[in-house]
Amino acid sequence: MAFINENYLKLQAGYLFPEIGRRVNEFIAANPDKKVIKMGIGDVTQPLVPSVVKAFHEGVEEMAKGNTFKGYGPEQGYGFLRDAIAKNSYHDRGVDISADDIFISDGSKCDTGNIQEIFGHENKIAICDPVYPVYADTTVMAGKTGVCQPNGYYDGIIYMPCTAENHFIPELPTKTPDLIFLCFPNNPTGTVATKEELKKWVDYAIKNNAIILYDAAYEAFITDENIPHSIYEIEGAKTVAIEFRSFSKTAGFTGTRCAFTVIPKELMAFDKAGNAHEVKKLWNRRHTTKFNGVSYPVQKAAAAIFSEEGKKEVQAVIDYYMENAKIMKASLAAAGYEVFGGVNAPYIWVKTKNGLKSWKFFDKLLNEANVVGTPGSGFGPAGEGYFRFSAFADRENVLEAMERIKSLSPTLS
Ligand SMILES: *Cc1c(COP(=O)(O)O)cnc(C)c1O
């Protein structure tokens, strides 16, 4: 008889986006003449930039010729891409990260999930609430939790509420975790952590021999010069943090797939006898055993982001989204909403009026303005009463959606 991994039975059905889809489809079926504007899902809308497309084509051409054809590449990624990342994403910002501590992959979603595998079951995990659902679900799959409670919290996970009261930066937990997931700029709240705030976490991790799993998927959207782009900008972080980055949002690679994970050789974790081990070695073993590398044309396309032209083109697309965010933030504030995020991240996190529940606001917005967003409660209980708008949208849709929201009835009705 074959037995299943029963941890999968603990998982709650992926409820949020299917439920949004169901309500939107129902509305469209009943109102076929209405133009619905979608600002819900965190996927990019602008095409790949010309430098990237050119490099992508060149990569394919090389694969088409006998003398330039490439088979398996290094599992960790080609040297040209790892070097370009080390230089442009780290050294140029004064952060000393070595190219051989960088692992190229096909996505940060996979990496933030797969990383669980190299850590023991006994680790206690701390997760923010609201949160990107991948961290909790993969913790459950890895067997590190108990069952799910009615409020959506799994037994055994240490949840850290992020609300307006703490400026969406979690407080240090009262129970000591071994692994801490942090994501800045944050999805869904669009907020960022200052150097001081991150230092607090790095110092805490050093003191408790804990490891921070730092998701920096939105670092390219930071506009404020004082906000750190990498956790390694904080002294001591190389001994306690893994950083995840992705080209998905940075350069529109959500459908192209390329990301990377940094594990400095200084980072140690322990066996039961208390001996320290290089975490990087374990990840390298996992990566080379279970992964065979990102395709050559994709890595070539990714490296083009770091060319002079590529940098300018990618920045122009980011600026376009961030101009959307600025328009949205200003319009929503003018419509009387309390608004967070949107300055260093492509997400606007809105507090509903009069304590309206997130799903109630979703229905009101859909019915009265024909605009779709994401209910905050779908990201965790602390997201109740909030709503996420994504700036990944076309400008004319943003302008129209904001006009319509201004005319929303101010009452709860
Ligand atoms: C979009 C996103 C990612 C990127 O995932 P990929 O698999 O690289 O596309 C990572 N973390 C968060 C929080 C995200 O929103």
Beta-strand level of the residues, as a percent range? 5-15%
Helix and strand pattern: HHEHHEHEHEEHEEHEEEHHHEEHEEEH
Radius of gyration: 22 Å
Task: For the record, give the distance between the C-alpha atoms at the N and C termini, rounded to a whole number.
Answer: 56 Å
Chain-averaged pLDDT: 96
CATH class of the largest domain: Alpha Beta
- Beta strand count: 15
Structural class: alpha/beta
Strand order of the largest sheet: 2-8-7-6-5-3-4
Cofactors, ions, other ligands: pyridoxal-5'-phosphate
Low-confidence stretches: none
Number of helices: 13
Q: Any overview of this molecule?
A:
This protein has 413 residues and is of the alpha/beta class. It folds into two domains: 6-47 and 310-408, Aspartate Aminotransferase, domain 1 (Alpha-Beta Complex); 52-307, Type I PLP-dependent aspartate aminotransferase-like (Major domain) (Aspartate Aminotransferase, domain 2). Helices cover 36% and strands 15% of the residues. It is built from 13 helices and 15 strands. It has helices at 7-10, 16-30, 50-63, 79-90, 108-114, 134-141, 195-208, 247-251, 279-290, 296-303, 308-334, 358-369, 395-406, and strands at 37-38, 102-105, 125-129, 157-161, 179-183, 211-215, 241-246, 259-262, 268-270, 276-278, 338-341, 347-351, 371-372, 374-375, 386-390. The strands form four sheets. The protein has a seven-stranded mixed sheet with strand order 2-8-7-6-5-3-4, with helices on both faces. Strands 11-12-15-14 form a four-stranded antiparallel sheet. A two-stranded parallel ribbon has the order 1-13. Helix 7 (195-208) links the parallel strand 5 and strand 6 (211-215). Helix 3 packs antiparallel against helix 10 (296-303), helix 4 runs parallel beside helix 10 and helix 11 packs parallel to helix 13 (395-406). It is globular. The termini are far apart. The structure holds pyridoxal-5'-phosphate.
